[in-house]
Amino acid sequence: MRRQIARNVVWLLGERALQITVSIAIVALIARGVGPEGFAHFQYAQSLVLIAASIGLICGAEVVVPRLVAHPSPDAQSHLIAHAFGLRALASIAGYLALLVSSVLTGQDATTVHIAAILGISILLREPFGVVTAWMQAHTDNRPSVVFSLSALAFKAVLIAALYFSAVHAVHEYAWTFALESGLLATMLAWYYARRRPRIRISPDRGLLIRLVRDGSVFWISMILLFSARRIDQLLLKPRVPLVDLGAYAACMQVLDNFSLLATIIASAVAPLAVYAQPSLAKARYNVLRVAGGMAAIGMAGGILIAIGAPWIVQLLYGERFEATVNLLQQGAIASGLIFADAGLALLAVHLRKPAWLVGKSLLVLVATAAVDLFTIPKYGVQGAVYGYIAANALAVVVSLGFVVLARESDAAKQAA
C-alpha cells in the first residue's frame, strides 16, 4: 500500500512539474504572439473565466473522494459519481452563463467578451468530467489521469506553437486551443470511465444531492473567494490603466503565480507526516511553525533570485515589448516569502478541519486587496496593484499566524472525533 501511495504521489508531482514547465512556455508564446495589449485582453478574460469557473466547484474532490473510499462497491460508486457529475454540470452551466451575463452587463469590449466566451467553454467540461479524476484518486491510481492531462496539454502546446510560428496575432485563435484541450481531456476521461463503470440504472437521489451540496458548501465558498482574491487586481486595473500596462502586470503575475505553485507542492509533500500524523496540537503547531519558517526561507531565496534575474527572465519569456514587466517583477518578488509562509501556516487549519477559518481569511484578503488597490491604483497605476499584492499576502500571513497561535485543544479534540 505504501509503495502504491508513493508511486501515485510521484506521478502527481511529475505531472505538476511538467504542467508548470509547459504552461510557462505556452504563456510566453501567447504573449509574444499577441503583444502586450492582446495579452492584456487574454489575461483579463482568463481572470473572468477563473472566477466563473469557481462556481463549478460545488462538489469538490474533498467531498467526493472520501465518500468513494467509504463505499468501495462499484454500484455505489457509480451512483455517487453520477450525482456528483450532475451537480457539477449544473453549477458549471450556471458559471458559464454568469460569465457571459456579467461580461455584457459590465460593458466589456467586444474582444474581451469574445475571448471570455471561448475560454469559458472549459468551465462546461473540466469540473463535470473531473469526477473521473476523483474516482481514480479514490482508487489510488492517478496515472491514467496524469497521462490524459499531459496528452491534452501537449496537444494544446503543439497548436499554440503552430499558431505562433505561423505569425498568427489574433487573440481568439489562441483562446480556442484552451477549449480544444478541455474537450480532448473530457473525452479521454469519459472514455476511460465508460469502459469500467457498471451497467446499472441510476435513480435520482435527492438526499444524496443535498448532502453533497451541504458538505461541500464551505469549500465551495472558500474557492470562490480565493479565486476572486487572486484576480481582483486585474479586474480593477483594466478600466484604470492602459492595456499595455495591464499586459505588463499580467506577465509579471504569471511568473510569480507559477513560482508560487512550488509552495503548494512543498506543503502537500510535507503535510502528511510533519503535521497530519502528529498526535497532539502542541506538536502539530510546533511542526507547522517549523515548516512555515523553512518555506518562508525558500520563498525569500527564490524571490531574490527572481528579482536579480528579472531582466533575463522577462527577455527570455516575453521579449523586449514587455520591458515594463521587469520593474514590476522585481517588486512583486518581495512577496514570495510571504506566500510560502502562508502555505505552511495554513496547514494547521486543514489539519484541524477548520474550513471556515480559510473562508474567513479568503474573504478578508479579498476585501483588503480591493481596498488597497482602489486607493493605490489611481495614484500609482500598475505599481499600485503590486503594492496591493504585497499587502494582501502580508495580511494572509498575519491571519494564518493568528489561527496557529489561537488554536486550542478543543479544536484538536473535535478534529480527532
From TrEMBL:
Database matches in InterPro entries: Polysacc_synth (IPR002797), PolySynth_Transporter (IPR052556)
Q: Please state the protein's primary subcellular location.
A: membrane
Q: Name one GO cellular component term.
A: membrane
Q: What is the lineage of its organism?
A: Bacteria, Pseudomonadati, Pseudomonadota, Betaproteobacteria, Burkholderiales
Does Zinc-finger show up as a keyword for this record?
no
- What Pfam families does this protein's entry cite? Polysacc_synt (PF01943)
The membrane-spanning stretches of this chain are: 9-31, 43-65, 85-107, 113-135, 147-168, 174-194, 206-228, 248-276, 288-313, 333-350, 362-380, 386-407
Which PANTHER family does UniProt cross-reference here?
LOCUS PUTATIVE PROTEIN 1-RELATED
Which protein are we looking at?
Lipopolysaccharide biosynthesis protein
Q: How does it sit in the membrane?
A: Multi-pass membrane protein
Where in the cell is the protein located?
Answer: Membrane
Provide this UniProt record's keywords sorted from A to Z. Answer: Membrane, Transmembrane, Transmembrane helix
